[in-house]
Amino acid sequence: MSIASQQQEAHVLLNKLQQIGMNAVIFQMRPASDAFYPSDIEPWSRYLTGTPGQDPGYDPLQFWIDECHKRNMEFHAWFNPFRVALKYDEPLAAGHVAFEHEDWIVKYGNSLYFDPGLPETRQFITDVVVDVLRRYDIDAIHFDDYFYPYPIIGEAFPDTLSFKKYRRNFAEEQLEDWRRENVDLTIEQLSKAIKSVKPWVKFGISPFGVWRNMADDERGSLTSAGNTNYDHLYADVIKWMENGWLDYLVPQLYWHIGFPAANFEVLSHWWKEHTYDRALYVGHSVYKCDPASSILEWRQCNQLPNQVRLTRKIPEIKGSAFYSAKHFYRDIIGFQDTLETKLYAHPALVPEMPWIDNQPPATPRKVKKGWGKVLKWKPDKTENELDKAVRYIVYKNKVGEVFDPNDTRFISLITKETKLNLTKRTNKIAYEFRVSALDRLHNESEISEPVIIKL
Question: Which tens digits make up the pLDDT trace of 49-80?
């Protein structure tokens, strides 16, 4: 696919996501120890040109960041930390780290992985993330559910040597605890590294939807999942939240309401009890919604809307994520229309994260009507990155109408610009316009005094 075709495809998708009200994109830019950006550490991804290591002729990561920010969407950079190759017999690009450090790599099933038990691999992954963090204006670092791979029946993960070399204080029978600590160490190390380089960049994870079953742990959920984070992926996500290593969690609740083994409603309420003053969103399985599905609930047009409505009744849940974006190209039994005209008809502000920063920026100055039908304002100047205004909210209401800043119907738009060209109307209605500033963590300034403009 040519550069123009790739970029056109991105424009179409992002325009669609903007149209239906999305305010963040989680973009997978390191699928398997490869890169959607120029890197001195890892080769270009095969998914760009079909050939590993081949330069696509532009910087896809920078392109996507720019296009998301133009549309006032956050850009979350999605890394797969431990996966090296989906198929072990796929050729790797010349210069791949696997050739220099064969001892870092293990084969499990048909795939290759970095061994999480090695301090060297944890440091390598941290170096990759920090490199992107330093060079790109991203809003978040994101991992999904892949840490140790999902278990394969009859095949043990080949980490006997690393356990023997780096077992620390763990006994022979504590292999699983050791694996969990390896992932703990990775998450803790990354969390500290991210905040030391750019304190405003969030660190989030979308884990498998079940931490543990109650049958295995009284703290677990009333589920009977075949795999769980804790017992099979060695990902103790609750510990990570308790320790404040994460800024947000998006558990993948990819089951329908009422599903016996893993009920969407039951799990929504279980996860709300484990936020530990961090942000909780919910992951929805858009990919399952299909009129041809063998499961009745996924053939019904109200399944996804009802899931969103259910989460809105739970104050601890701050929003929704939808997997995956490509399914918005097709008709998801009318779900796009429901989002655009009902559920997401008005703009939504990204939730604040006061544990990172709770100081709002200064109120925009000199908010006034410019020449013609233009509203303009000036940002306050500051050298503190956390206090800089990066976006503005323009509120609009008819003169005489009671203005409520908590009612999103009054948000005319959210913009990076410092002016707004207004559309002239023939009936000359007087409107009040107000402007506030948002910083990188979406703390909102005081709202300006109203400016009255007839349109």
Answer: 999 999 999 999 999 999 999 999 999 999 99
